[in-house]
Specification:
- By secondary structure, this protein is an alpha/beta fold.
- 40% of the residues lie in helices and 13% in strands.
- The protein has one domain (2-54, 64-309): SGNH hydrolase (Rossmann fold), CATH 3.40.50.1110.
- It starts with a helix and ends with a helix.
């Protein structure tokens, strides 16, 4: 009850703020279901090559570069939803890294910001995040932009927290105080704190947008040890988080993109348990999806979004 009361108060405060600014909130479902892609460079659609691409002709000079996949998972997702008959509108403050299909369909909006951690996205929902937040106040609005009012928020976050070994308030018994992922106990503590920050983000979205639905995604795998184990254990923790949300009657659905990319190879007498990533779905940096990987993500979300909409 305390949690629901807090959400209601936050929602009323957001409406009051919009009225004070003289900005009308965006109408709910103005063009069908309003879908809000929220995340980092993987929501943005980055694809990184850290070695010379095999398809590059030998005569072409090469240095390490980043190559985006315009539209990321958002392009195949909007086509899949349209094919299913789900009338929808992608919402957000950014139109970066779009493609011709999304532009033509008017589905190029999102809030996928490269480099963002969970806390940085949470800050920008009703305040200012890092400098690339496009003015922040995404869900509460500003004097020049109405609040975003999603019906479904698709969250894919945690990759940068893992990459930065970001765990504020925790000092590990290692040089620099950072977590050692090879240590199972330290890894468990890190994943627990990471999941708690994700829970806080979910609570904030629910407080600012009571009654809306959330597709909570685990993250795409990290195809290199020991980070691969972190993404796997984080996926399990998010599954448990969603189960807890559903047990409290919240409109949250789990999206298992990790399993669309990877599988656990059981231990044998000759070898320990390992994690195998499907070839061709991750860039050579072992983190960002390829276009095929983004299509795999879209297929997962294309099932999760209708499931979220079907919740009572």
């Amino acid at each position: 009850m305390i949690r629901r009361t807090r959400r209601l108060l936050c929602s009323l405060a957001a409406v009051a703020a919009a009225a004070t600014l003289g900005v009308a909130p965006e109408p709910a479902a103005a063009a069908g279901v309003r879908i809000y892609p929220l995340g980092d460079s993987i929501t943005y659609g980055a694809t990184w090559y850290v070695g010379r691409p095999a398809q590059l002709p030998p005569e072409v000079p090469y240095s390490t570069v980043g190559v985006d996949s315009p539209g990321g998972y958002r392009a195949p997702l909007t086509l899949a939803l349209t094919a299913q008959g789900v009338t929808h509108e992608m919402v957000g403050t950014s139109t970066a890294n779009s493609n011709a299909v999304l532009d033509q369909l008017g589905q190029n909006r999102h809030n996928g910001h490269p480099g963002y951690r969970i806390d940085q996205n949470a800050a920008a929902l009703d305040g200012r995040g890092p400098s690339s937040d496009l003015g922040g106040y995404w869900l509460t609005g500003t004097a020049t932009r109405a609040p975003i009012t999603p019906d479904v928020t698709v969250i894919h976050l945690g990759t940068n927290d893992i990459g930065q070994r970001y765990d504020p308030g925790t000092t590990y018994p290692n040089a620099g105080g950072k977590v050692n992922y090879a240590n199972a106990a330290q890894r468990a503590a890190f994943v627990g704190n990471l999941t708690a920050r994700l829970q806080a983000l979910v609570d904030k979205v629910q407080a600012l947008r009571p009654g809306s639905r959330i597709v909570l995604s685990n993250v795409t795998p990290w195809a290199a040890a020991p980070n691969d184990r972190v993404t796997y254990e984080y996926a399990q923790a998010i599954s448990a988080l969603v189960a807890g949300e559903q047990g409290r009657g919240e409109r949250v659905v789990y999206a298992d993109v990790w399993s669309a990319f990877a599988t656990v190879v059981p231990a044998t007498p000759a070898a320990p348990e390992t994690i195998a990533v499907i070839p061709g779905l991750l860039s050579p940096d072992n983190v960002h999806p390829t276009p095929a990987g983004y299509a795999a993500m879209a297929a997962v979300y294309a099932q999760a979004i209708p499931a979220a909409l079907a919740l009572p």
